[in-house]
Amino acid sequence: QTTQHAEVVIIGAGPAGAIAAALLRQQGRQVLVLERETFPRFSIGESLLPQSMAYIEEAGLLQDVVEAGFQYKNGAVFARGLDATTFFDFRDKWAKGWGTTYQVQRGNFDKVLADGAARAGAQIRYQQTVLAADVDSDTPSLRVKDNASGDEYTVTCRFVLDASGFGRVLPRLLDLETPSAFPVRGAIFTHVEDRIAVNSGFDRNKILITTHPEHEDVWYWTIPFSNGHCSLGVVAESAFLARYPGTEMERLQAAVAEAPNLKALLADAQWNIPARQITGYAANVKSLYGKHFALLGNAGEFLDPVFSSGVTIAMTSASLAAKALGRMLDGETVDWSADYAVPLKRGVDAFRAFVTAWYDGRFQKLIYFKGKNDDIRRMISSILAGYAWDESNPCVRAPERWLAALDSAVSM
Ligand code: FAD
């Protein structure tokens, strides 16, 4: 059959696609997910935020995630040099809601979500690459290639959700791409068997973010997994990363050697898995929706990895879009700007303010400042836990004003 039909087609079975598929199945929609790869497949983005648990729960996938045995996570540690260390416990935060989550090997995690969506009745076809799209006519259609046979076919539908992540299928095909306002940064990363001693004081229940001792816009992630391995990466502007010679592994090892806390922590680590580099991942679009489509997760905007907000934003977008689409398919008029793009961007913009303030130093100054009172600490803990849509939190409601006020207080 060269033309097939589905009520909703979702491009990509990552977190955005799988959560959207499961939510649409709860409404009884017929959902076809087209995924280019076979799962499990590698993906970067391994540290979740507690806010994401609400969407996993909403999609009916909580038990699947809890039973998968991922590393429990309850906070974040920040370290600069050997003596500036501070931590946030996400259970002690301003917002209500989940205070714990997981650190996940994304291959397994994404498969758990996608299998859950399939169990709920979504049809997920792997090894299918979306090549072209016509979303202007009354019946949108996608041109799809079956990777195994090379055969091409057309799928028509009522609505397309693009959850293709860094594949950015519709932004590319529909000329929606706009550059991110952030400078071009990159990351070099791998997984190491960390062999960190139990008595080292290292807390495996928290992500460790390390600031480079001399360059405060350069930072490292250390994300422990439940199998004795850590995900380890360094992030910097591309020009900075270019100064490390050699293989990706040698370059990452050289960068790690410059951070004394990491050098000591990983002294016995086994570096068995080749490192890789990814550059220029920050991206934006002119519009998050059109008449017959919406862009979810990374297919829309991607800010920066520093606060591990990517999967949370992806799931928030899936939840908002599934609600708006459900009403539209029921015949209601949906204002995709007011019901989807604006509410989604509210949280993304709060994260953006903190990403900007991380790199220009204001937020780091506050994070490492020892004299924070409990309320300020809880407000920060809340945004770091992903509650960027909680307008009861002053640092979400007016991030710039909040940052400016604290910057002057901390500088005094
Ligand atoms: P994805 O997870 O990328 O899923 C998209 C899917 O679409 C893929 O499976 C892909 O195969 C499929 N696809 C692509 N093209 C096509 C096509 N043409 N046809 C069919 N299918 C297609 N986020 C966090 O939450 N925590 C972190 O710690 C974190 N760290 C990060 C570190 C770095 C260096 C970077 C760059 C990002 C990080 N992120 C992190 C962000 C995270 O990786 C993404 O935000 C998240 O994976 C987005 O989910 P998604 O569902 O939108 O897309």
> What is the number of helices?
14
* Helix content class: 25-40%
Low-confidence stretches: none
Shape: globular
Estimated structural class: alpha/beta
Total DSSP E strands: 19
Q: Would you give the CATH topology of the largest domain? A: FAD/NAD(P)-binding domain
Radius of gyration: 21 Å
Described by strand count, sense and barrel closure, the largest sheet is: 8 strands, mixed
Strand content: 25-35%
CA(first)-CA(last) distance: 71 Å
The CATH first-level class of the largest domain comes to: Alpha Beta
Overall pLDDT: 97
CATH superfamily of the largest domain, by name, is FAD/NAD(P)-binding domain
What is the architecture of the largest domain at the second tier of CATH? 3-Layer(bba) Sandwich
List keywords for this structure.
412 residues; alpha/beta; FAD/NAD(P)-binding domain; D-Amino Acid Oxidase, Chain A, domain 2; 3 domains; 8-stranded mixed sheet; 7-stranded mixed sheet; globular; binds flavin-adenine dinucleotide
How would you summarize what this structure contains?
By secondary structure, this protein is of the alpha/beta class.
